[in-house]
Write the structure tokens for this entry.
Amino acid sequence: MTAAIAYGDHDGIDAVTEANRKAWEAASRKYVREYDGLLAQAASGALLNAVERDLLRDILDGSPEVVHLQSGHGLEDAALVQAGAKSVVGIDYSSTAARAAQQWADELGLACRYIVGAVPGVPLADGTADLVYTGKGALIWMPDLDAWAREAARLLRPGGHLLVYEGHPAVPLWTWDEDTPGIRADRSYFARHHVNDTFPARGATEWQSTLGQVVTAVITAGLELLSLAEYPEPFWRPGGVNAAAWDGRLPNTYSLLARPPASQPGPPVARHSRPAGPIPAS
């Protein structure tokens, strides 16, 4: 059975986020052009790496219902279902990405469905997910980490988990020099933002944060931090690039696992229960 993609509400998003959304709509055409290769990747279930599988092993054994914030091409969603998730709902503001993800999920018969919508403002009811999954280039598009963390907390059921596996906030500083690691003169760890010059490019604005800001946002949203770790391996290596910053001496990714405290109610957050309607046929 083919799942219907749904539309959330884009009204009220700021001009920078809208410009970024348009950049991602254009860049996501890559997923259409490279459909066959990406379908093969989805079928392989290989898009969860060893770190993610280790952190999620016990959670996936419980057949969780998953919400993937900023799901992009959705290849991780296929891997999550193949690894034990009961279902995945992906949220992304690129309709092109969501349609491509839905197409290969349907072709593979996977329990994944996609909503075109912004984060925060996900059109799902409170307590929808046993697992909220995100990362791999997601948080750099969030201008308000506190709002993002509250949304993740809102979506979690009691006993649920938030997993973030993400590029380290220091990564935008590293040069791609091959001989020795370097720091870009035009970037700062403590800057508010910078222009993306890799993917999707097209003048998109990345929001810079520190690792401390990410952790503080999660804790302030009422979640209990279970683990936080940093790793030298990047989650993405552009073809033809072999940067010295990736040789094991610098942080390139991190993982964060959190949950609502077992003995406390969830944080006071805005209530949402309006379901997303189907996308009209184009």
Summary: The CA atoms of residues 153 and 221 lie 6 Å apart. The first strand starts at residue 6 and ends at 7. Residues 6-278 form a domain with the Rossmann fold fold (CATH 3.40.50.150). Residues 95-108 form the longest helix (14 residues).
